[in-house]
Give the backbone structure.
Amino acid sequence: MEIETSSNTINITGNIKSINDFQNIKQSIDVLTTQYKHIIINIIDSLSITSSVIGYLNKLVLKDSIDIRMNVGNEQLLHLLDDLNLIQTFKAKRG
């Protein structure tokens, strides 16, 4: 998994599957949240997302009032977010 950030946007390529991936994502987003209250997350091609990442993003939206917009490249991951009723929370769409 690789992460690139640019202003308030984070691009994630590769599969999100390990604790290390979670820590890297959290660290990158933590830096962005010090400057921005609106963050765009582009998950380019991951088939899944770990529960720790979901929990962290949920906390950002519900507790810290961070506006997240998620663009998901993989249809299977979008269906997973839909099954977990997170489409509206993360403003997720195919992209």
About this structure: The CA atoms of residues 8 and 39 lie 5 Å apart.
